[in-house]
Amino acid sequence: MPRIPIEDNFTDVLAKAQRGAGVSDEELCRRAEVAPEDLAAVKSGRVIDAVLRRLARHLRLSPNALEDLAHNRWYPEAPTFPHGFAAFNTPFGDITVNSYLVWDGRAHAAAAFDTGADSSGMIDLVRTEKLRLQAIFITHTHDDHVADLARLAGETGAEVWASEREPSDHPGAKLFKENAHFHVGRIAVKTLSTWGHSPGQTTFYVTGLSYPLALVGDSLFASSIGGSPAHFADQHRNDVEKILSLPRNTVLACGHGPLTTVGQEKRHNPFFAS
User: Global pTM?
Assistant: First the structure.
C-alpha cells in the first residue's frame, strides 16, 4: 500500500477528545486558562504550542504527542510482510478506506477483512495467487467498510462473518462472539470486542504470519482514536485493554490511514502516550 496520510490531524484529535469529555469551549478555556480567541485559533488549524499543551493536559492527551502531530514530526514505520498480507486503500466519497487480505500460501487459503469501496484489487490478488477466499470478516458495518461486500462474497463464495452485536444485512451472514477462533490454513484468527465506535466494532488478532497482526477497523488510527460521540470512554478503555495490551511489535491495520504498531502508538498517539 502506498504511503497515505495519517487519518486525523491535531484539530481532529482535539475535537474528539473534547467531545468525548463532554466539555464546552467555555469550560475548556476556564480549566486550561486559555483565551477564547486562542482556542478558536487552534481549532481553525493554527499551531500555538503553549495553547496546545495546556489543552492537552486538560483533555487527558499527551502534550508531546499532540505537539508532534501538529508539527508533522512523526509518521509510523510498519514492518514489511514478505508474504501472506496485503492492504488495499480505496476512495469512498471524500475519504479513503482500507481493507486487507491475509493468506496461507501453502494451503492456498485466505481471509478478507472488510471490503473497502472497491474489492477489485483484492479479487485480482486472490486469483493471481490461486487462493480460496474462505471468509470475509467485518470489523463493523459502516458503509465505507462494507461497500463492496455483495460483489466480493458473490465472486468468491466466501462466508461473511460479523459480530453478534452488529449483524450484517448480507444474506446468509454468520455471527461470531468475542474470543471466537478461526483458522485460515495455519493462520489463527481471534476476535476481540473493541466496541465504542460502533456497537460491534471488532479487532481481529492474527498469528502465524511474520509478525502478530491486529486488524482494528476504526477502533483506533495512527495518532488518533475512532470517533464515538456516545461511547468515547468505552472505546478508549477497549483500545487500552484489548489492543494496546498486545505485544509491542503487533502491526495495527487500521480502517483508515497508515499501518502502525502497538509500540509506536504507546509512544506517539496523543490518546495513549504517557
Answer: 0.97
